[in-house]
Write a structure and sequence with these properties.
It contains 2 helices and 2 strands. It is an alpha+beta fold. The longest helix is centred in the last third of the chain and has 32 residues, at 40-71. It comes from Halomonas urumqiensis.
Length: 75
């Protein structure tokens, strides 16, 4: 089973590398009043990481609210 996971991880790494190499063109990114130029692949990575952080924070908040609700005494 370990070899299967290693193969999956290697395949994902290869796909990410291909994505990065094929999307190296510089694009202009605008957000409100900010504007910057950076490679599309880097922009995709930043958006992905921000999504992971916000998703993890949201799930942590939901878990905390569920624990608080279950810890409250029932009326």
């Amino acid at each position: 089973m370990d070899k299967v996971w290693l193969g999956v991880k290697l395949l994902i790494t290869l796909l990410v590398l291909v994505l990065f190499v094929q999307n190296i063109a510089v694009v202009e990114f605008r957000f409100l009043t900010w504007s910057m130029s950076l490679p599309l692949a880097l922009l995709l990575v930043v958006i992905y990481v921000l999504g992971m952080v916000s998703g993890r924070s949201l799930f942590a908040l939901i878990r905390r609210l569920r624990r608080r609700r279950s810890a409250e005494p029932h009326r």
